[in-house]
Design goal:
The chain has 781 residues and is α+β, with helices and mostly antiparallel strands. It contains 21 helices and 31 strands. A hairpin with a 6-residue loop joins strand 20 (594-598) and strand 21. 31% of the residues are buried. It binds one DNA strand of 25 nucleotides through strand 3, helix 3, helix 5, helix 13 and strand 25.
DNA sequence: CAGTGAGCGAGCTTCCGCTTGACTT
């Protein structure tokens, strides 16, 4: 009898399941979605009740063909795609493409790839749930409509024409970054004075140790000084001691989002890197599926973890826990991310290993006992006034899960109070304490930090926007479109005051701290800011943080069969389309203009705005008799924050540094960054040089060096044909115009001897048989 | 490769969510 064919989404899963099911089943993968909306005309018949037009994308043709022929040969076809909205739709598309009847074709689901789960799933097949499929179609169609209606609006209203885009997810992601930036820019720090007293006492071994106690924060320097002066000559007595037990609980096992956050905090990985490494671990069978929103573990896994904890740390450290998902939008088609086996596992690649160890520890910790603490709070009376000081200490009584792992926190979750609380020496009520010194330290309030890739993912997940499979790609998109940049920011030096009470004398000191430094953070570009403002102005509802949550409720109603999907789409489309038409008709071009002042020399207005080639400053108006002067903003500057003085500074380029080898040496900033122009040739300036301050003596060696390096790379030049033979990191190649052609292996050795005829032949040869590439998107008819 | 900055109009781009691999100057 012919084998049954079982189709899953992921090929790695297929392999595992085939082993479990044995002889009767052949298990194949469809590699995710196999059909999508056609691109032309949105792929939707708006007038025909939003009927979708599906096609098999080019890169899926092969898979579909193979599944078709297998389906013919096989006994029964079973659909085992993921149990969520998308998975259900994939099953339905498989029915459509393979000619299966969705009413009778067997559909099974499981949330974990374990023998019992899969064997039990096979005993209770159902059929495709068309309501759920319709909910997915509604989701897909709505996203297509939003993206393909909104993006063209931007093309029309923005002067920059570098394929801009907008969408339900990406545009809100940019908005989050833009708003945080403006909060930071508008933030006015307020200072107060933290009171800290240092006392000495004997510890358990009788040694004198220093510990600190805190007093009430003082709002001003006057108050702080008055307080310290008031403490002159005081006695300090312990009046009360409270000892309270406390505990810490481990975090849930990893989901995609929490894995990305922790890998970012603990290992400094960006989200794409984390996902790439996780994919490798998954494919080599070391971890479970890495795109998941579920925190649950299979029974089999819980048992394995439990026995691992027993053998490694003892039963005292064991505590079985079942975690529940807080997130309502979670679809939980998979397990949490965990090691497939808990016993020792070697991972070759160092980066992969670090991620694997993180996953292993987190998984272990999630099934371990609470850490037990003892918190001590001592009140200390000041004899000269009514204020009290508080000393607190924390002792770890039992480490529990902390033996293995502790989750890190984001900057914005760390408050000033929860610094490291050390141990207090044993104290007794009525004990007199000798004061070493007391200080009032000026502290400033801080704005919320800028987002990292991972903290943006966290925010998106909280808002229910995006899915585990799209977090990393979404961030790539907004970076690629130039709405957002990832970079460091240097902090600025700031003075802060300290008042010190010592030996009955109050002394005033000033110290410096660095504030506002950020590393690898997301900054909005001017483009991102103006596009966000524009979309907010004209498409308020789409840009609303709750838009996705609202339509998700409607998708749910479709999934429950309460409303028809085309009715839902119709209710959305009509008002939306009206907004689109109105915007195209009435909205002004997006400029983001801001006036900076008046140029003293010419008496003309100085403005910052978006130009055709990005943010710029301009002196004068295009309607003036004399042409306006233009200068490009540096990439750390922004239309919103640039000052008049900074703007005027930009007009200092181009600078002529003088004559070298009878030609001018001119420094400027061009399309590809700062450069030196000399003798009709151009030399890029590295980051170590500033075009505004580079000197003649610094510039000339760069010319000489770069010229030499270029000669080094050149094998031969065919002047007349404008063809170059160059040496690159992948071997010698031919350059003609913008295109490169690799030399065949046998010709690489003696590349310098090639004649122009031979070179031309190679070009023709390569053109005729182009090297295999990722299939390019083609216009579907 | 190293200009430009206004507006027109051809012909192009664009979304989100499932999955992996092949390529590089």
């Amino acid at each position: 009898m012919a084998k049954n064919l079982l189709i899953v989404e992921s090929p790695a899963k297929a392999k595992t399941i085939e082993k479990i099911l044995g002889e009767d089943f052949e298990v194949k993968s469809c590699y995710g979605h196999i059909r999508d909306l056609e691109k032309g005309d949105m792929g939707i018949d708006i007038k025909n009740n939003y009927k979708p037009r599906y096609i098999v994308p080019e890169d899926k043709e092969k898979v579909v063909k193979e599944l078709k022929s297998l389906a013919k040969k096989s006994g029964e076809v079973w659909l085992a795609t993921d149990e969520d909205r998308e998975g259900e739709a994939i099953s339905w598309h498989l029915c459509e493409v393979l000619g299966l009847d969705p009413v009778t074709t067997k559909r099974i689901v499981f949330h974990e790839i374990t023998k019992p789960a899969i064997q039990s799933a096979v005993t209770k097949p159902r059929t495709v749930d068309m309501n759920l499929v319709n909910a997915q179609q509604a989701r897909r169609i709505l996203d297509r409509i939003v993206g393909f209606e909104l993006s063209p609006v931007l093309w029309r209203k923005m002067s920059m024409k570098n394929n801009l885009s907008a969408g339900r997810v990406q545009s809100v992601a940019v908005r989050i970054i833009a708003e945080r930036e403006r909060e930071i820019n508008a933030f006015v720090p307020v200072s107060s004075f933290k009171i800290e007293a240092l006392f000495t006492a004997k510890d358990v071994s009788g040694k004198q140790v220093t510990f600190s106690a805190e007093g009430k924060k003082q709002a001003s320097v006057e108050n702080a000084e008055a307080f310290l002066t008031g403490c002159k000559g005081a006695d300090y007595t312990v009046t009360d001691i409270q000892v309270k037990p406390g505990k810490k609980t481990p975090a849930a096992p990893f989901t995609t989002s929490t894995l990305q956050q922790e890998a970012s905090r603990k290992l400094g990985y960006g989200v794409s890197r984390t996902m790439l490494l996780a994919q490798k671990l998954y494919e080599s069978g070391k971890i479970t599926y890495m795109r998941t929103d579920s925190v649950s573990l299979s029974e089999t896994a819980m048992d394995a973890i439990s026995s691992q904890i027993s053998s490694q740390y003892g039963d005292r450290y064991k505590q079985s826990r079942k975690f529940k998902n807080k997130n309502e939008s979670a679809q939980e088609a998979h397990e949490a991310i965990r090691p497939t086996y808990m016993d020792a596992m070697t991972v070759e690649d160092a980066d992969c290993r670090r991620l694997y160890e993180l996953i292993w520890k987190r998984t272990m910790a999630s099934q371990m006992a609470d850490a037990e603490l003892e918190k001590t709070i001592a009140k200390i009376q000041i004899s000269t006034n009514k204020e009290e000081l508080t000393a607190s200490g924390e002792v770890l009584k039992f480490d529990g899960f902390l033996k293995v792992y502790m989750e890190d926190r984001d900057e914005d979750e760390i408050s000033e109070e929860d610094g490291q609380e050390g141990m207090l020496p044993p104290l007794a009520v009525q004990q007199k304490l000798p004061l070493k010194e007391m200080r009032a330290v000026e502290r400033f309030t801080r704005p919320l930090p800028r987002y990292t890739e991972a903290s943006l993912v966290k925010k998106l997940e909280e808002l229910g926007i995006g899915r585990p499979s799209t977090y990393a790609p979404t961030i790539s998109t907004i970076l690629k479109r130039g709405y957002v940049e990832k970079r460091d920011k240097e902090g600025i030096k700031r003075d802060f005051r300290i008042l010190l009470l010592k030996n009955n004398n109050v002394e005033k000191l000033v110290e410096q701290e660095n504030t506002g430094a950020e590393k690898s953070k997301l900054f909005p570009t001017d483009l991102g800011l103006v596009v966000t403002d524009f979309l907010k102005q004209y498409f308020d509802d789409i840009m609303d943080y709750n838009f996705t949550a609202r339509i998700e409720e409607e998708f749910d109603e479709v999934a429950q069969g309460k409303i028809l999907w085309n009715k839902m789409i119709d209710d959305f489309y009509n008002p939306f389309k009206k907004d689109v038409d109105n915007t195209i008709e009435n909205a002004e071009r997006i400029k983001g203009e801001r006036e900076l002042g008046v140029d003293a020399a010419s008496g003309k207005k100085v403005i910052a705005r978006m130009g055709r080639y990005g943010p710029m400053v301009q002196i004068g108006d295009v309607n003036d008799e004399e042409k306006p002067r233009f200068a490009k903003l540096k990439n750390t500057q922004s239309i919103e924050t640039i000052s008049y003085d900074e703007a005027m500074e930009l007009f200092r380029l181009p600078r002529n540094l003088g004559q070298f080898e009878d030609s001018d040496v001119v420094v400027n900033i061009g399309r590809f960054g700062p450069y030196i122009a000399h003798d009709k040739k151009f030399y890029s300036l590295g980051k170590e040089y500033d075009p505004y301050s580079i000197t003649f003596d610094e510039a000339t060696p760069i010319i000489v060096e770069k010229r030499a390096a270029k000669e080094e790379r050149t094998i031969k030049i065919f002047e007349k044909e404008k063809i170059q033979l160059l040496r690159g990191p992948y071997g010698p190649y031919i350059k003609q115009g913008l295109r490169n052609y690799k030399l065949p292996k046998e010709k690489q050795e003696n590349a310098a001897d090639l004649s122009i005829e031979e070179v031309k032949a190679i070009i023709e040869e390569v053109k005729a048989n182009p090297p295999k590439r990722v299939p390019r998107k083609k216009k579907s008819s």
